[in-house]
Amino acid sequence: MYNCYWNMHNYDMMDYEDDNDLEMMYPEISNRVRPMVVMHCNLLEKKYGPMCRPSHKELDEICEDMYEKIKDRLDRDDDDHHDHDHHEHDDDCYRQRRRYGRRRALNDLFRVLLLGELIGRRRRRRRRRPHYGY
């Protein structure tokens, strides 16, 4: 079992530059997805303001847009790792089912990342506001 507990003294002394070792563990797809998440959050904030709350439909559209932008790359990666021992017809059916499942899973992931980014932005803004204790 890993012990991730630290006291405030250790936290204050923590060097944020040391996060690079963890950041290097992100999968390659994150290099493509992260900029899209940030761009869409910037657009939402520009359209609705910093405390924006997109509708479910808007999130669905954004997630679908993100999927469309990376699906060709994912398909090429799948083809590179494909086993050619299957029959062609069975293989096509399998690919279609897998792509549909992948689309749903990635759209869910995109939604999680978008909401996480929007929530993180709100929290950072709240911490920067001075508190006067009225």
Summarize the structure.
With 134 residues, the chain is mostly helical.
Reconstruct the topology from this structure.
Blueprint: H1 8-13, H2 20-23, H3 29-48, H4 56-80, H5 88-128
Kindly describe this structure.
The chain has about 130 residues and is an all-alpha fold. It has one domain. The chain is about 70% helix and about 0% strand. The chain is built from five helices and no strands. Helix 3 (about 30-50) crosses helix 5 and helix 4 (about 55-80) packs across helix 5. It is globular and about 70 Å long. About 10% of the residues are buried.
Number of helices: 5
Largest sheet: none
The structural domain count equals: 1
The helical percent reads over 70%
Q: Which class do the helix and strand fractions yield? A: mainly alpha
Q: How many E strands?
A: 0
Low-pLDDT segments, ≥5 res: none
Q: How does the overall form come out from the CA principal axes? A: globular
- Indicate the radius of gyration in whole angstroms: 20 Å
The ordered string of helix (H) and strand (E) elements is HHHHH
**What is the first-to-last residue Cα distance?**
45 Å
Query: What is the mean predicted local confidence, pLDDT?
Result: 80
Content of β-strand: under 5%
